[in-house]
Amino acid sequence: MQLSDRDKALLDGAEGEAARQAMDALVQLGQAYDAPDMVDIGYAHVHAGMALYKGDVELIEGIAQGGGRMSVPVSTNIANADMGDWQGIGAPDSLGLLQKRAEAAHRAMGSGTSFTCTPYWAGHWPTWNMHIASIESGVTVFANSVLGARSNRDGFFAVYAGMTGRYPRFGLHLDDNRRPTHRVHVSARPRGTADFTALGYAVGQAVGSGTPLLMGLAKRPSLDELDAMGVGMATSGGVAMFVVPGVTPPFGTDEAGAGLPEVEIAEPALRAVFDGFSTGEAEGFDLVHLGCPHASFEEMKDYARLLTGRRIATGIECWITTNRAVHQMARDAGLLAPIRAAGARVVTDTCPISCHFACTCSPDPSLGVTPAPPKTILVDSAKQAHYVRDMIHCPTLFTTSELAVESAVTGRFHPRSLRND
Known about the structure:
Elements: H1 5-11, H2 17-32, E1 38-40, E2 43-46, H3 54-65, E3 74-76, H4 93-109, E4 132-134, H5 137-147, H6 157-164, E5 166-168, E6 182-186, H7 193-207, E7 212-215, H8 223-236, E8 262-265, H9 267-276, E9 287-295, H10 297-307, E10 317-322, H11 324-332, H12 336-341, E11 345-348, E12 377-379, H13 382-391, E13 396-398, H14 401-410
Parallel strand pairs: 2-3, 2-4, 6-7, 6-8, 9-10, 9-12, 10-11, 12-13
Antiparallel strand pairs: 1-5
Helix pairs in contact: 2-6, 3-4, 5-8, 7-8, 7-9
InterPro entries: PMDh-L-like_dom (IPR007506)
GO molecular function, one term: lyase activity
Domain Phosphomevalonate dehydratase large subunit-like: 1-400
């Protein structure tokens, strides 16, 4: 692999031991994928340091204490606690305080401490042809497919890329790998983010790790719908990029996808996703979760409208998760008051699958965290339904945002089939 003079200097320790280790890891990654050289990146979305696993926080602290500093704009992915109000969501002080240590380490390194899976709603908006690195699959697919930036699904290597400003040129950083592999005809008529996350989930099941070219959409999806569709694909498959003609740079409206394998996604495929994730008892749910991925400002407006003048049913919690920047915008716009008056809670930094409910593996015993997930979680996102089922082993109910709010208010599940189209 061809290295620049600065790459070599980093490997020689010219910018410190932390940067040397970061570049060494990136060189090994590039060699594993036969990358010809490195590219300059303009942005990275990096690992938060997850407080459920004490060693994870200590790893981030060690990099910071060893002189690690970010050399490009950096945002941080979702964490294990709402660092402004972990007690409010039932997390122990041991977990919240440990997560704050990771926050302090990131600040020392110069990271933008967003702690969100939607940093683009917090102002991190990489542009066309910018090379980036991202630990979060939803960020990767949105950047590639909507913004025209270039990113792989990177894992912890995103931290090293942020520190060095460099990344091996392979995968979706190469033009040849950014072409569609499947032509998907959408005969279903999705409406709203819940439908689009179900559509994405069905597409991901059909194409695996391919790059689908979506034809037949009845209208140009909104930014929120594109976001929802991408995270659905990235959840059920390994999709890191989709193409919507006239939306995805630089693909024009005349893209046809001749000769590609054909897939059709009709209405029954969407219904199957909703039905497949509606396994909980219709009157047995105790948590309604809205905002996966973390809600945008436009979605916060919708949730406030749906909740104004209403009240969450007794015995049910309602969480709306978003990032810190959108939370502040919603506060300034007067959106938090009707949400809180309804008895719902606005949560930042985390979500049900990443908070103290998580029990995929044993947290550090010194934290005193005993996972106690709700009996059933009702959601408006296929992504959240998938991970609630697989990570906290909790039954789910899945419906539209409007009907999720209706369910929270009445205490009775309102499935998508009841929607008045």
